[in-house]
Backbone:
């Protein structure tokens, strides 16, 4: 069972995540861990989504994501805890690793 | 190059599409051909998206779609013609065929 992260834990996890996030940082938007990814093509965008889909299923934690052509807008939240948990940061880290 | 469909053509194409759409019809929402698909699981939802992604690339026409867990919200529009074209109905038909 996931645990709801406190403000200070979120700030620390967000800093760690953004160390590997490159030019475009993750932000907390309406309580959700959010980032828009841009790829070179639809094939690259959807190929990345396919890798992340398998990780999501493996982690038993799934993203909210919107895709149009080469763009993927991601929002992560843990509904079970009504906030953010370690799972959101784990999935975000996978997203950065495989982009 | 796609051609912009007229109102009457859209109405006819929409009727034809909804003949195969089952219980949940496609609608035109804010000028876009729209439907929310529900699947039994994330694996089924994303598996379907993967099939459609390949069709989209083949048709050179890509959806706007939002996924969370077993739900996929689809919006189709042809930006080149600032409206709907035959391509939107072709892609929607693939979506119904493979769901």
Residues:
């Amino acid at each position: 069972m996931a645990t709801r992260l406190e403000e200070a834990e979120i700030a620390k996890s967000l800093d760690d995540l953004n160390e590997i996030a490159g030019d475009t940082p993750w932000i907390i938007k309406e309580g959700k861990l959010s980032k828009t990814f841009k790829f070179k093509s639809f094939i690259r965008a959807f190929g990345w989504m396919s890798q992340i889909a398998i990780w999501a299923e493996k982690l038993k934690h799934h993203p909210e994501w919107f895709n149009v052509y080469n763009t993927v807008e991601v929002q992560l939240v843990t509904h079970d805890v009504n906030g953010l948990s370690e799972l959101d940061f784990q999935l975000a880290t996978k997203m950065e690793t495989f982009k």
